[in-house]
Amino acid sequence: MSSPIRFGVFTFLQRETKSLDRKLFVLTATSGMANALNLAVINASVEALRNGGPSWQHFLWFCLSIGLFVYSFRYVLYESTRIAEAAICSVRVRLADKIRRSDLLTLESIGEADIHARITRDTGAIAQAARPLFAVAQAVVMIVFTIIYIATVSPIAMLLCVTLIAGGAGIYLKDRKHYEEGLNNASKQEDKLFDSLNGLLRGFKELRINKLKSDDVFEDFHATAAQVRESRTSVMILFSNNVIFIEMFFVILLGAIAFVLPILSDSFSTSATKIVAAILFFFGPLVNVVTMIPVLAQVNVTVDNLGRLEATLDEGLEKSAEWETSPLTDFGAFRTIRLEGVGFTYRDSDGNATFQVGPIDGEVRRGEILFLVGGNGSGKTTFMKLFTALYRPAQGGIRVDDVEIGPTNIQSYRNLFSAIFTDFHLFDKLHGLKDAAPERVNALLRLMEISHKTVFGDGRFSNIQLSTGQRKRLALVVSYLEDKAIYIFDEVAADQDPQFRRYFYETLLPEMKGAGKTVVVVSHDDRYFHVADRVLQMDYGTLLNLPRTAIQGGNPRKRPTARGKKPTSQEPGQ
Ligand SMILES: Nc1ncnc2c1ncn2[C@@H]1O[C@H](COP(=O)(O)OP(=O)(O)OP(=O)(O)O)[C@@H](O)[C@H]1O
After folding, report:
1. Which region ranges are annotated with the description Disordered (predicted)?
2. Please, which residues bridge with residue 544 across strands?
3. Rounded mean pLDDT, 428-442
């Protein structure tokens, strides 16, 4: 059975930092007690006015209680800030690490918007809530001690106060499920809102030139925003009712002390001022505690969201646990890569197959240029993801010479490749290539005719705001510098001008082959098929070897140098 009040955030902070130690809890309690002590000392000092005024002991107690309060409360606030920020940093770094080690398919199934929302919005919400929660914990202790103080003055007044607080707690517990359900719904709708916003930003150009489309998308966004508003408003109204109830109860309590207690107890009038002062003293903190209730509920939802994301990542990582610790093997001198009955199936959320690639049997030899052709959606990119082991085959396996690729050497296998997929990302730094000499990088930029747009210096490119074709040329430079055994180019030549396209097919690829590289190119450029040693065709997920005669349909020509001129450096042919 779950506990009636969930302090998911404290569990989360402890798990992430292991810093919720006894000292923090003792000082949280101390600051609450010291605050209550402030009240007791002030009340005693005021009472002493009747008998000649407060003594130096009163003053000493006052200094002691205020000193204790300032020291302990300061410690609690400083420490809770440090703990909250450390916890957020730790969970962000850990999730980023799990993401980078995850399966591509796992990430594709979670979706970008979900990951963004968890790591930015949800962790941010926890950081914001954690510090006030410690202040509230302090307030709870202070309220408890103030009530004990009231009990020493008038047990009946104490009973009334306890009734007030028990009533408030009862109402919260009654509505807790509604809070969390409502906030959970709002959080899911906010995820949709993020998705919708992504569409608005990524599809901006299409929307800006098409008013009808823009209106439609905006309407969707508006509807989702309205759903979020509805969910959050209904939760907050429920919560506001509770605050009003508490306020009303408070006034009723003060009224009861003024009107009812004097009837019940003859001696009450002497202590009435003390009790009223005590109630006024704890009322502020009590309202703070009540206002934190929805924040606590919200944090529980975000902690749950983070837990779910991590569990999904862990599930994928569990299957590849031993992959990470295995030492890397250098397969760079391979002769043949064999695919033996490799198959893969995309499935929808109900587990139904939506598209199947394979089973594929075949081999790729060292130093070959392979072209992969096929219609849209025929499975070329999926095949490349299988070949590079970004997707794990559902059936069959891959062998490098005589070595079977499995959990222990899959990372070594992936290290054979440098790939430019159609949705490649350009980093402005040369990550993983710390020793790249700027002169060499800049010479390649000149060779690719983009040196007037970007320069490499201080470990980064000066500009990556380039045209689509220029971005691909820059990607080629980076890929070339990676100096891997196998290159995968998915439609890299598609956005290039005719001269560069010719240079790419007729100079760059043969020179890479000459340097012992294996190159697999996804291409629709049939006039350059003669460059390939073999042309493979993907047809509805089945891989076929195109016969030589079919390739001759291409346009075998003399191989000129780049755009009619010799490359300015030895690279890339060397
Ligand atoms: N992440 C995914 N989840 C589910 N289905 C997918 C996913 N990626 C691709 N598919 C489906 O798999 C099929 C093959 O897609 P793939 O991207 O491999 O084709 P392609 O030959 O590279 O196409 P194109 O030439 O248009 O780039 C398509 O029907 C596509 O809808």
Report:
1. 549-574
2. 537
3. 84
The CA angle 497-499-500, to the nearest 5 degrees, is: 70
**Higher confidence at residue 217 or residue 318?**
217
Cβ of 539 closer than 6 Å to ligand 1, yes or no, is no
pLDDT in tens, 166-180: 776 776 667 767 777
Measured distance CA(73)–CA(89) in Å, rounded: 24
- What's the one-letter identity of residue 345? T
Strand-pairing partners, residue 98, are none
- What is the CB neighbour count within 10 angstroms for residue 429? 12
Residue pLDDT, tens place only, 266-283 = 666 667 778 888 888 877
Distance (Å, rounded) from C-alpha 339 to C-alpha 360?
A: 7
β-strands 353-365, 336-347 pairing: antiparallel
Whether 355 lines ligand 1, by a CB cut-off of 6 Å, is yes
Model's pTM, two decimal places? 0.76
**Count, residues in the chain:** 574
Whether 376 lines ligand 1, by a CB cut-off of 6 Å, is yes
Q: Tokens for 456?
A: 């490499």
Give distance in angstroms: CA of 19 to centre of ligand 1. 47
Q: Which H or E run contains 239?
A: helix 211-259
Tens digits of residue pLDDT in 455-471:
988 888 888 888 888 99
CA distance from start to end of the chain: 70
Q: What would the mean pLDDT of 472-489 be, rounded to a whole number?
A: 91
Strand order in the sheet with 353-365: 353-365, 336-347, 395-400, 403-404
User: What SS3 state is found at 56?
Assistant: helix
Which residue ranges make up each domain of the chain? 8-319, 336-564
* 3-class secondary-structure state, position 544: strand
ipTM over the 0.90 cut-off: yes
Residue pair 89/72 in contact by the 8 Å Cβ criterion: no
Alpha-carbon torsion, ordered 22, 25, 27, 29, to 10 deg: -140
In 151-287, at which residue ranges do the beta strands (DSSP E only) sit? none
Does the CB atom of residue 380 touch ligand 1 within 6 A? yes
In whole angstroms, what is the distance from residue 550 CA to residue 286 CA? 82
Does residue 108 have its Cβ closer than 6 Å to ligand 1?
yes
CATH number of 8-319: 1.20.1560.10
Q: Where are the alpha helices (DSSP H) in 102-154?
A: 104-110, 112-116, 123-153
Contact 176, 69 (CB under 8 A): no
Q: How confident is the model at residue 547 (pLDDT cuts 50, 70, 90)?
A: low
**Residue 382 alpha carbon to ligand 1 centre in Å:** 6
Express as a percent the part of the chain with pLDDT over 70. 90
CATH superfamily of 336-564: P-loop containing nucleotide triphosphate hydrolases (3.40.50.300)
| Residue 133 to residue 137: CA distance in whole angstroms | 6
